[in-house]
Write a sequence for this structure.
């Protein structure tokens, strides 16, 4: 039994409550390979304190997780990341970041459930680690955009070459972003929203 008084019961912080003007909410997933910046993007753009499930990498992952090119990485997402951003007074996006390692992919199906769209983050140093994410989204019919995350010393390729390497149709937006930067991450999400709107245009009702 809870004997605490009403003054002692702690509720959500004021900044975490949903804006009263919000009239539509959309679930979006941030996907990609191991270490491409999914947790960073959710954390940089979320207007609430993000929920993360990062754990310190241990010897258990040696020989299992491919850390080539990201040897300095010390933590990894083991379930999901969660955040929220209001794009305007009416539209709210709920953001779910997926774990990148193959051994946690069994969680993806649940995270994809109900998602209207996705952002696929890629690292040009390790382009291949995000191929499976694209394939899974295509299999489930989830619309997506692809964002090239800015990493120091990462090779820069023309967008046409990247599109060809990933076998992306022209209809899928391919953009640059910096997951560390709130404005850049927000612009990436706006690109996804515009893409979703182009796929499902709203037509005025006939009086």
């Amino acid at each position: 039994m809870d004997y605490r008084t009403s003054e002692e019961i702690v509720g959500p912080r004021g900044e975490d409550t949903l804006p009263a003007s919000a009239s539509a909410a959309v679930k979006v997933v941030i996907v990609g390979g191991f270490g491409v910046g999914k947790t960073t993007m959710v954390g940089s753009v979320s207007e609430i304190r993000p929920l993360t499930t990062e754990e310190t990498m241990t010897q258990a992952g040696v020989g299992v997780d491919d850390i080539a090119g990201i040897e300095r990485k010390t933590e990894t997402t083991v379930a999901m990341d969660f955040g929220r951003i209001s794009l305007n007074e009416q539209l709210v996006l709920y953001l779910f970041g997926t774990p990148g390692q193959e051994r946690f992919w069994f969680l993806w199906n649940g995270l994809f459930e109900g998602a209207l769209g996705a952002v696929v983050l890629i690292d040009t140093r390790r382009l291949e680690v995000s191929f499976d994410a694209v394939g899974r989204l295509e299999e489930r019919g989830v619309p997506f955009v692809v964002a090239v995350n800015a990493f120091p010393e990462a090779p820069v390729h023309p967008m046409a070459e990247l599109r060809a390497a990933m076998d992306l149709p022209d209809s899928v937006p391919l953009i640059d972003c910096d997951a560390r930067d709130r404005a850049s991450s927000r612009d990436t999400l706006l690109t996804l929203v515009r893409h979703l709107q182009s796929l499902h245009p709203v037509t005025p009702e006939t009086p």
Q: What stands out?
A: DSSP finds five helices and eight strands in the chain. Residues 1-12, 55-65, 203-207 have pLDDT under 50 and may be disordered. The chain has one domain: 21-53+75-197.
